[in-house]
Amino acid sequence: MSMNQSGWRPEMNAADGTSAAPTATGNRALMLEEPLIFEIGGTDRTGVDFSEAPDFTSRLGGMERSEPIGLPGLSEQETVRHYTRLSRQNYAIDLGLFPLGSCTMKHNPRLNEKVARMPGFADVHPLAPTATVQGALAVIHQLGEWLKTLTGMPAVAMSPKAGAHGELCGLLAIRAALVARGDARQVVLVPESAHGTNPATAAFCGYKVEDIPATPEGRVDLAALKARLGSDVAAVMITNPNTCGLFERDMKAISDAVHAAGAFVYCDGANFNAIVGRVRPGDLGVDAMHINLHKTFSTPHGGGGPGSGPVVLSEALAPFAPLPFVEKDEDGLFHLIEEETAGEHHAANFGRMVAFHGQMGMFTRALTYILSHGADGLRQVAEDAVLNANYILRSLEDVLDAPFGSSGPCMHEALFSDKGMAEGFSTLDVAKGLIDEGYHPMTMYFPLVVHGAMLIEPTETESKAALDQFIMALRSVAERAKAGDDALKGAPWFAPRRRLDETLAARKPVLNWEDPALAEVQAAE
Ligand SMILES: *Cc1c(COP(=O)(O)O)cnc(C)c1O
User: For position 20, what pLDDT does the model report?
Assistant: First the structure.
């Protein structure tokens, strides 16, 4: 067995799983292997020329480094090639349709990028005096006004940095409101059809989390919810549209019952993209709802960030909104309301969640997206997102089981299960087959209420031709899973790596690299 420097072995990618003609480099045409930067970089090299280092000794007071810290140095060209090669092993929305359900991987218009790169926005500093950043504050304020109008809610907190962070903001506001009225409620109810971050957030806030079952048609069981409401319930967290891709039609009845029991309604609005311009959550009795700018309003996301999760708040929760926030005075000047400037009017704020105000780059992109679409365009965003998801649902339900296919049209995502696949074949095989077809897999095994779930969200930014090609690819893979095609069990055949041990990869990830030379020295010591 030959093993080249990069760890690729010829048999790893043989189409029949046994052997293949090896190449000397380990590369397979344009599929290029790439070592870690620590394996190719040297501490003796650098991409820039430094003049003699100035003497900082006096300023660092003896804290200056005495030894190099072993950062790999590369020339400029080596650096560019390293990261370009790595980027080619990845999948991106700019390469093709990204069907991850619940994640809303939609095209990010380049106009967004142009605006976000304007120096007045891109180079803004969080500590700049507010008189010098009036334009940036105006963007934050105007975006907030749009979010309030689109949701029909009176207040908004712009500082949360992602969806889950927005949930935390909403629950902290709810807790502050309950504390203010001397009410120590301990329980947060979370329906089975809610997103996984909801129970996590409630638990993180110290609440006891209780499930509310879903009906067979995939929606909240209103009767079960009503039966559980009581004086110990602080809030109900509802994802709408829910993770089965369905609109919670009983939302108003749910809110009325929750309010009658003295509790608050938190709505997970991460998937606002399915209803924006069509439904105002404020009309449904929602008290707090986060909006993922990075989903609904197209700002790019993935790989852990950046995101932005503003939270709209009802009249009852508005006084508890966190600091800081932007306010506009009668003269049209913008102010950042902080601890010192909060005054009596905002005395009930629950504190701050972040060091600085928010994600400027996401604010500029989201507002650009909103202004370039206009109110009627945003409405069409929701309509087309729903239309595209239903096109996928109805085009594939003859080969893939659609557990809620008879519950009516879906919202922005289509949900399938693994029912009907050949013995020994599962959702994982379909996902791996899709990789060979050149697609990122769909969201899988989520939501938990569906066995072997496959959640597909095409978004409104895909053309009919792109949807048809994706449907053709998924249909082919689904048919192979139904027929029990053994070759599918070996997929992916054409990716940079073959099928990994998912359990080991999750339980024992290898996250650090050790210098073999250093390890040798240490072993000898
Ligand atoms: C994406 C998503 C979240 C979490 O948002 P993050 O920005 O990843 O923290 C929460 N709920 C739902 C329904 C989502 O789709």
Answer: 55
What domains lie within the chain, and their CATH numbers? 96-107+153-320+346-351+376-495 (3.40.640.10)
Mean per-residue pLDDT of the chain:
91
Closest CA to 257 of 230, 281, 276, 232: 230
176 CA from centroid of ligand 1 (Å): 23
In Å, how far are 28, 233, 244, 246 from 215, measured between CA atoms? 51, 21, 11, 12
Q: What is the distance between the alpha carbons of residues 4 and 8, in angstroms, rounded to a whole number?
A: 6
Is the Cβ–Cβ distance between 387 and 461 less than 8 Å? no
**How many Cα atoms sit within 13 Å of 214 on the Cβ side?**
23
Supply the DSSP symbol for 417: B
Helix or strand or coil: residue 236?
strand
Residue 502 CA to ligand 1 centre (angstroms): 23
Q: Is the pLDDT of residue 8 over 50?
A: no
Which of 190, 195, 289 has the most ligand 1 atoms within 8 A of CB, as the residue to mutate? 195
CA distance 35 to 516: 14
The H or E element containing residue 233 is: strand 233-239
CA distance 268 to 286: 10
Pocket of ligand 1 (CB under 6 A): 102, 162-164, 195, 197, 239, 268, 270-271, 292, 307, 309
Nearest CA to ligand 1 atom 4: 163
- Residue 516: predicted pLDDT: 79
